[in-house]
Amino acid sequence: MFSSQRTDDDTDGYAEMSDRMFALAAQQPGYLGVETVHSEDGFGMTVSYWENLDSIRNWRAQAEHKIAQQQGRTGWYEQYKIRICLVETEYSFDKAD
Amino acid sequence: MFSSQRTDDDTDGYAEMSDRMFALAAQQPGYLGVETVHSEDGFGMTVSYWENLDSIRNWRAQAEHKIAQQQGRTGWYEQYKIRICLVETEYSFDKAD
Prior knowledge:
4 strands; alpha+beta; globular; homodimer; four-stranded antiparallel sheet
């Protein structure tokens, strides 16, 4: 789970890098899916789902992703929190069911 | 973690109930905090943090919250997923540090 507050810095390739990271994550071993939502004030939450902790560690250490992380800290993000979580239970509701 | 897709149904007290649920959750034993973000297309993520599974179970069973859940299913939500997760590790970054 990645909760972030953006800076006002929109001019240096953030959108392209963000798109690239979603595409790259989806190609990694153990990737299960992602949910992401951003508000207009620059707060965002992105939750990516993975098979196990090793998949998460590998993604965290992926070379191109490491560069993105570094650019995130120097430019794009005011603050962020990363939480590594174990999904214990899942419920779903679908009106169409 | 509550990931939801709203219906177009904005006319029947959703905003008031949502405000009320945030306020009520914050009064429950074991409540630690919340993060929430919604996009304009009606997708939202709300993550509330709790001390332990018992706190989560109590909140889920709270009487007024049960009524809200029921109204959510009949009216406000097209789909939702609830995931009960254990936070294993947490990292934070703050540019001001």
